[in-house]
Amino acid sequence: MAKLLIADDEPHIRILLEQTLEELEDEGVELIVTENGLEALENIEAEKPELVFLDVMMPKMNGFEVCDKVKNELEMTNIFIILLTAKGQEFDKLKGQEVGADHYMTKPFNPDEIVAKAREILGL
To answer: What's the whole-model pTM score?
Structure first.
């Protein structure tokens, strides 16, 4: 069973992502939802999801820190990480590339794009 982790500290964004992606559960995808960076990191280490939607601005650890730890320290390079942020500046995209993010999406996002990207990455 494929696993997909959502990490966002804003309840309405987290719920929107969960509702957007819940249709994938019918195709055998398990959704894991977390509220902060530390919780996300703990779940990534324990559950080893294939795909992570990771908010950049979160308490305890930000998305850049989580991504850096997963990709560079833990060397979990097989986990596809998509950074989600309201910051669309080039600096932030470059920072995301530096820490090893596989993709970068700005908020507000198109729910259809989120589902399409998840399907593509998970091979559904």
So the answer is: 0.94
